[in-house]
Amino acid sequence: MGHSLALTLPEIILTLAALALLMVSAYAGDKSARAATWLALAALLGAALFVPGVFDEGGVGFDGLFIADSFAAFAKILVYIAAAVSLIAAAGWFRRDGVYRAEYPVLILLSAVGMGMMVSAGDLLTLYVGLELLSLASYVLAAFQRKDTRSAEAGLKYFVLGALASGILLYGISLLYGFTGSTLFDAIAVAISRGGLSNGELFGIVFVLAGIAFKVSAVPFHMWTPDVYEGAPTPVAAFFASAPKVAAVALLVRVVIEAMGPATDAWRQIIIFMALASTILGGVAAISQPNIKRLLAYSSINNIGFILIGLAAGTREGVASVLFYLAVYIAMTLGAFLCVQRMRDAEGRPVETIASLSGLSRTNPALAAAFATFMFSLAGVPPLFGFWPKFLVFTAAVEANLTWLAAVGIATSVIGAFYYLMIVKTMYMDEPAPAYEKSRDRAEGVLIALAALFVSPLGYLAIPMMDAATLNAAGALF
């Protein structure tokens, strides 16, 4: 039991911190929000320092329910980084609107606990508990601005559709348990390999993948994403587009490789369909969007399609390319959303229309340059760093004899490049719109600068280190 508890030390640290901050916010009220944010950041740092699998072998705890390996460690570090950036961004955003409440850091920490359980799940029940802990906190975060009808609507839509997805996932879990006799990933894989894939197990796999696909915003389970991203407060949308995406993709990878490994031909067809549908719809649907947050929502759907191309390979190199893509993706996405946070009119009210970006290069050259860097990188335009993860997932697909899939992915990336370049054209070639309010949030500016440097050509210097880390993490699953 002591060994198992040691493996869950990051989750224990975050849980205790969340409970302590909950008590502080209950007694001190919203005036403790700023202090709670810094304490939450300290808790995330403490959790990151004690993640097993980074400097050691990790291990398996609670009789296989919890797996602490290098794969989980890599995903958790990305999750904690994204959660920390979301906390810093939210502090500045809500303070300017005068509605920053002390429960926000608590919800982020509870989400991080759920995400940690998701990426370390070795059992379908652990998977479900982690997913629900993340979901319950996320529903509240989406509706955090209670007086804003769009935020309330986003929270309600997310809750209703999330409940539906949870039901689908739970039904798939019950089918797999009924036909394999276990909820442990290893035992499910043994049962499938021994008796072959039965129709009941196949249906279970389909329902489980459908439930997880909702969390990763893969088509056709993407319908909540544009509405929730648009309605939720901008820092919350930034959080949804980064940390939960990493956790859900890592969970999906572990489930298909460890639990469904012997049924690769079955799950690969589902993954390929979702990959193609996501890259095509994510590219085409974004073209006509007038709202920058809705466009970034379709951008996230588009990028999930490319990530799934790497997963479809089903190899160690394919999984490593997925992890590499996630690391670069969260930098590009968080950077883009941080730029969106600076879109405020002269009275300080948030502006979300793409038309308001017109001529930004003349009214705010620094913000325009940062925005253009993230857009070019999301489009995968070399020499920016966003090109390299796309190259890796396509290479993994080709090496797995899925050349046609890589070719379709390359073709659909051209569609996505159109709307990214459209934003750059709006900022640099159109007549200037009214200037945005000058932001004085230094922390936000530093984060934008760091993200822009990472996705610039300087990011290529990190390739040797990231290659070693991702291949080591992927090797834990094979």
UniProtKB/TrEMBL annotation:
Q: Name one GO biological process term.
A: ATP synthesis coupled electron transport
Question: What is the protein's membrane topology class?
Answer: Multi-pass membrane protein
List, for all copies, the residue spans of the domain called NADH:quinone oxidoreductase/Mrp antiporter transmembrane. Answer: 121-416
Example GO molecular function:
NADH dehydrogenase (quinone) (non-electrogenic) activity
InterPro entries hit by this protein: NADH-Q_OxRdtase_suN/2, ND/Mrp_TM
Could you tell me the keywords of this UniProt record?
A: Cell membrane, Membrane, NAD, Quinone, Translocase, Transmembrane, Transmembrane helix, Transport, Ubiquinone
Catalysed reactions listed for this entry: a quinone + NADH + 5 H(+)(in) = a quinol + NAD(+) + 4 H(+)(out)
Keyword Nucleus carried by entry: no
Q: Which residues cross the membrane?
A: 12-29, 36-55, 67-90, 102-119, 156-177, 202-224, 269-288, 295-313, 319-340, 366-385, 405-424, 445-463
Could you tell me what this protein is called?
NADH-quinone oxidoreductase subunit N
What species was this sequence derived from?
Allosphingosinicella humi
This protein's encoding gene: nuoN
